[in-house]
Amino acid sequence: MKTTRLPAVAVAILSLAACSSGHDAPQPRDAAGDASAMTGPRVAPAPTADDQIPPAILGQAGPLQGTDLQYVPGDTLTTGYLAVPAGTGPFPALVIVHEWNGLVDRVRQVADAFAAEGYVTLAADLYGGRTGSTPQENQALIRTVQDDQPKMIANMNAAVDYLKARPDVTGRVGAMGWCFGGGVALSFGLDGENHDATAIFYGQLVDDPARLATLSHEVYGTFAALDQGIPPSAVEAFEAALREAGITNDLHVYDDVQHGFWLHVDQDPAARTAPALDAWRRLKAYLGRTLGG
């Protein structure tokens, strides 16, 4: 694990630590079925240059380019968001998991950004269409997942199954998330059906080598030195346990930033831009190694 001071310019789902984010208001829209998802809108290729980070995390994203999708069989409340690259593919795929306040437009915009990079991206909905606007509401939503972890794993499995069944997907799928969603991604890596990548942004961690040995792929992690909920000592214990379990990893703790820094660079661009860019470069390289993007 590396720690870096850059120049200015929860298993895991049990954490109730607040993400340092604003609470985006959800935009209601009609959910799309499988047929329209296969023939619906596409995101034009627009991979970032080496010195660019996605406009989505700078608060500069344009209109949404994807479509809502009910991906859990028999569940009409759970509504994710699907962003598909233009072209015939096949493409690698990602399931991304929202923060503690639910599937809001910042996460949908990031799904569009990954589609622009060449990934069929499904932003999962773990709250049955609900979002929170206060810490108390967010904690109550987290408890609904905490109280039924098998349902959470089934939700994520359904997302992976949907992506793998698409003819424009290579069959390689990764899971990633932020804060609450980072913990979910790790839980899914340990208990979910086979997938090919796990990327964690300041999510709650596990330090039991026997548990971590069930992982089948390299793990990516980005963390913040000023994070009081997941401090550097917890990341060190996680890294040591991964090493003991024989799991390759790319973990990095960034100085001078706090929990939630990557998804919300616009809240403190002077402190967050440089570490966010470095984390993005590492993430692109990681997804290329594990998913072939």
Explain this structure.
The chain is α/β, with parallel strands linked by helices and 293 residues long. The protein has a single domain, classed as Rossmann fold. The chain contains eight helices and ten strands.
Structural class: alpha/beta
Number of helices: 8
- Major sheet size, sense and barrel closure: 10 strands, mixed
User: Which outline best applies?
Assistant: globular
Q: Please bin the fraction of helical residues.
A: 25-40%
Number of strand elements: 10
Q: Terminal Cα separation, in Å? A: 24 Å
Tally of discrete structural domains: 1
CATH class: Alpha Beta
Annotated CATH homologous superfamily:
Alpha/Beta hydrolase fold, catalytic domain
Beta-sheet strand percentage? 15-25%
Summarize the SSE layout with pairings.
Layout: E1 2-4, E2 31-32, H1 34-39, E3 67-69, E4 80-83, E5 91-97, H2 105-116, E6 120-124, H3 135-146, H4 149-165, E7 169-178, H5 180-191, E8 197-201, H6 209-212, E9 219-224, H7 232-245, E10 249-254, H8 269-291
Parallel strand pairs: 1-10, 2-3, 5-6, 5-7, 7-8, 8-9, 9-10
Antiparallel strand pairs: 3-4, 4-6
Helix pairs in contact: 4-5
Overview in brief:
The protein is of the alpha/beta class. The protein has helices spanning 34-39, 105-116, 135-146, 149-165, 180-191, 209-212, 232-245, 269-291; strands at residues 2-4, 31-32, 67-69, 80-83, 91-97, 120-124, 169-178, 197-201, 219-224, 249-254. The longest helix has 23 residues, at 269-291.
Label this structure with key terms.
alpha/beta, 17% strand
